[in-house]
Amino acid sequence: MKNTSQPQSVLVVDDDRNVLEVLDARLSSCGLTVHKADGGRKALGILKTHRIDLVVSDVKMPEMDGPALLAEIIRTKPGLPVIFLTAYANVPDAVKAVKSGAVDYVEKPFDGKALTEKIQSILRDSEDEQPGRTAEPEPAPDSDDDTISPAMKNLHGLVKKVARSNVNVLVLGESGVGKERIANRIHQMGPRRKNPFVVVDCGATPAGLLESELFGHVKGSFTHAVSDKKGLIETADTGTLFLDEIGNISHEMQIRLLRFIEDRTIRRIGGLKGKPVDCRIIAATNADLGEAIKAGQFREDLFFRLRVVTLTIPPLRDRKADIPLLVDHFVRQFCRQQQVETVRIPEETMGWLCDYSWPGNVRELKNAIEGGIVLCRNNTLRPEDFHLTGITTDACEQSTADDNCLSLEESEKNTILRALEQTGGIQKEAAEVLGISRRAIHYKIKKYGIDAGSIKARH
Ligand SMILES: Nc1ncnc2c1ncn2[C@@H]1O[C@H](COP(=O)(O)OP(=O)(O)OP(=O)(O)O)[C@@H](O)[C@H]1O
Asked: Is 51 a pocket residue for ligand 1 (Cβ < 6 Å)?
């Protein structure tokens, strides 16, 4: 995928200064950003700290030669195109290198114009597709395909394209639409999928803590820094850093983050040395960053850095075709989890689920189905099994007076409390009363913070 706001970058590696200078002049004049390294090790350092779209490397170099550099690139940056420059005598080595994954080789002395054209053509190709390479792992299976409407298929098409590249992505959408899920999908479908996917909830982390969470600290740098601590950015090295609720970070954090995105180096709080970190950044927010910029709350330069590509996930009410697919998906998932027979969803229930506006989006739908499965009778989901906050449907009004259309969560919690009271706090028996698995009741007790121990003690 082409990064339209930044020129593409080429790393030129050769121990001959003249070759470096000639290529620098040629490629820069075509609008490319050129980085130069006089050996393989230096090249690896640059690859760690800079976005590079293509590497042109000599074959024979002291210390680390071209094929050794290629092997490292295939390991750490699968998909990155490499062209070799080679003297006639080393052509067999270059051919071997192409067989093991380089895109091509060019003999020295090279025709500068032809080489530039070759580089441009490879860069153009890799905007759409990374060149085939045996070392590149197969993409992860499309596990979401059973839950997407045509509108989401389009978004998933973009996700696939974006996943192959390394560009920063900004994911926008209301709370609960699936932003984190899409970020994870980008990670899973890209070359970094075997490496860490680190989620940072910027909204839920107090401002004072976020800096040390992200950047880490050295022992003694502040009162509670009792030992060295690695930050989450460092943890995401070679993988993906997902910054959720990016709209909520303080002005100081915006500046630190911007600096990191620009030089890809972190310094722990209280630390002296910087450390290069190579991680992909995906940020998400449900806030209107345009408005936040206008109000002076969010830095425009950081915004531009984060949104090299922007993906917007529509709210569930605008893609109702997804609802039946998601309902089926969640019903199967929760029935399996709660070890119950798959429940039936009559047409009336599905119609009702499709009519509702789902202000909490997919998360609300998911929770509703989970609760509905616990509460339903005769293995059939009916509208009255969904006691959603603020909804009064005919079916809900017909429900028994003591149910009183409580919020789904309250209602589910009360059901579990009642079952625990009935069984003297014994979870296994309460699970039997409710017809759910022990694992399911254990999970729900934890989810609602129910103190089963004190119920037991009272009996
Ligand atoms: N297409 C989908 N298929 C299955 N589950 C989904 C899908 N989209 C979202 N979900 C589920 O919905 C819930 C909410 O998704 P997610 O956390 O990704 O939303 P979000 O937009 O990041 O929310 P927030 O803004 O609150 O951080 C998660 O449990 C997720 O697994």
From this structure: no
